[in-house]
C-alpha cells in the first residue's frame, strides 16, 4: 500500500484495481463512496428503468431516462465541495405543481439529456463538471420499461406497478419504452465489464434495481463472459413486494436463473445479529425481516460465501457498512487479478 491525498492507494502492477458496480437505489452510493475512499478505479453502471418519484414525473413530462439513481451516483463520486453537492441534491419545497419535490440535480440531468441528445453523453459532460473520480455509465442510452411475470401467471409493466402488486415475482425483463428495438448497452459499458477485476452486483432491490441491468442482452452477456470476480452484495433486509422471506441463497438463485447459469462467484452476506429493537418498521414498511443465511444453498450454486458483520445500524435504520464491504471487494479483485496472471503464465 502507498498513501496520498488522505486516501489509501492500492495498486495492481502500477494501476488501481478496476471495479465495476452495477445497480441502483440508495445502497449503491454507499458502496461507491467507500470504494472511492480506497482509490479504486470505479465504473458505476446505473439502472435506467426507474419510474417512481421525481424521476418518474420528469420522465412523464420529458421523454428522458429517469435521472434519480444517476444523480445519487454522481454525488457519491464527485470531488466537488459539499456545499455544491448539497445544492445538486436539493429538493424544492415549493407548492408549485411542477417543482414541488423535484431535486435540482434531476432537472439538470434532464436538461443536459435534451442538450446532448442522449443520456450517455449528458452524464459524461456532467461527470466532468462535477469532477467525478471514476466513470458513470447509464446501463442503456434509452429509457427502459421493466416488465414482470408473477408466479400466478399474470404480468405487469412499470417498476411502481410491479411492486404495488405485492405478488411473488417469477421473472423480469426490459423493453425499450419508446420503440420495439431490443435494449442494448453502449460499448463503453461492455468494455468496462470485460476489463474489470471485479464486477459487483448490488446492494439494491433485486428485481427492480439489479436485474433490469442484467436483462439488457449484451450487458448480461458481458457479465457471463467476463473473467472478473462476479460479486453479489446480499441485501440485509428482505423487501416487501420483491423478496418477502427470501434467504441469501434465494437472492443468488434468482440472479443465476435470469442469467441462465451459475455466474455469481462470491456472495457477501451479513452475519451480524440485527438489533430489531432499534429498527422502526413503521417508518420503513418495505423492509420486513433480516435476510436469512443459507450457506448450503449458496454452495450448491458454486458460490463462495463471505459472511461478516457488514452492517452499520443507527437511528433505527440498517445500512451496509461501506468500508467493510469495500475491503472485501478489493481483496477479491486482487485475488481475481492474480488468478488471471497465473492462468496466462
UniProtKB/TrEMBL annotation:
Which terms under GO biological process does the entry name? regulation of cell shape
GO-annotated molecular function: LPPG:FO 2-phospho-L-lactate transferase activity
- Give the matching InterPro entries: CofD (IPR002882), CofD-like_dom_sf (IPR038136), Gluconeogen_factor (IPR010119)
The cellular location(s) given in this protein's UniProt record come to: Cytoplasm
**Function summary:** Required for morphogenesis under gluconeogenic growth conditions.
The family line of this record is: Belongs to the gluconeogenesis factor family.
Task: Tell me which NCBIfam families the record gives.
Answer: CofD_related
Q: What is this protein called?
A: Putative gluconeogenesis factor
Amino acid at each position: 500500500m502507498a498513501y496520498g491525498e488522505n486516501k489509501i492507494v492500492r495498486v495492481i502492477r502500477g494501476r488501481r484495481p478496476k471495479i465495476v458496480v452495477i445497480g441502483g437505489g440508495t445502497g449503491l452510493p454507499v458502496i461507491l463512496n467507500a470504494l472511492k475512499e480506497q482509490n479504486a478505479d470505479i465504473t458505476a453502471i446505473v439502472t435506467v428503468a426507474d419510474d417512481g418519484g421525481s424521476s418518474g414525473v420528469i420522465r412523464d413530462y420529458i421523454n428522458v431516462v429517469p435521472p434519480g439513481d444517476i444523480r445519487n451516483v454522481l454525488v457519491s463520486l464527485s470531488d466537488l465541495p459539499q456545499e455544491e453537492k448539497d445544492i445538486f441534491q436539493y429538493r424544492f419545497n415549493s407548492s408549485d405543481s411542477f417543482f414541488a419535490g423535484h431535486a435540482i440535480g434531476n432537472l439538470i440531468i434532464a436538461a443536459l439529456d435534451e442538450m446532448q441528445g442522449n443520456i450517455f453523453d449528458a452524464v459524461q459532460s456532467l461527470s466532468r463538471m462535477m469532477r467525478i473520480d471514476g466513470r458513470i455509465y447509464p446501463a442503456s442510452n434509452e429509457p427502459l420499461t421493466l416488465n414482470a411475470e408473477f408466479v400466478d401467471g399474470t404480468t405487469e409493466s412499470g417498476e411502481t406497478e410491479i411492486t404495488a402488486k405485492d405478488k411473488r415475482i417469477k421473472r423480469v425483463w426490459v423493453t425499450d419504452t419508446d420503440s420495439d428495438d431490443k435494449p442494448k448497452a453502449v460499448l463503453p459499458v461492455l468494455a468496462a465489464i470485460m476489463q474489470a477485476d471485479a464486477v459487483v452486483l448490488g446492494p439494491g432491490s433485486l428485481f427492480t434495481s439489479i436485474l433490469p441491468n442484467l436483462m439488457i442482452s449484451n450487458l448480461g452477456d458481458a457479465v457471463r463472459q467476463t473473467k472478473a470476480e462476479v460479486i453479489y452484495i446480499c441485501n440485509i433486509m428482505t423487501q416487501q413486494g420483491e423478496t418477502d422471506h427470501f434467504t441469501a441463497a434465494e437472492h443468488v438463485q434468482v440472479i443465476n436463473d435470469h442469467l441462465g447459469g451459475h455466474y455469481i462467484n462470491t456472495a457477501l452476506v451479513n452475519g451480524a445479529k440485527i438489533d430489531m429493537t432499534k429498527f422502526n418498521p413503521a417508518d420503513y414498511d418495505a423492509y420486513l425481516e433480516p435476510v436469512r443465511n443459507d450457506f448450503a444453498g449458496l454452495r450448491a450454486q458454486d458460490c463462495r460465501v463471505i459472511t461478516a458483520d457488514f452492517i452499520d445500524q443507527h437511528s433505527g435504520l440498517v445500512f451496509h457498512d461501506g468500508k467493510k464491504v469495500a475491503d472485501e471487494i478489493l481483496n477479491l479483485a486482487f485475488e481475481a487479478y492474480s488468478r488471471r496472471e497465473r492462468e496466462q503464465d
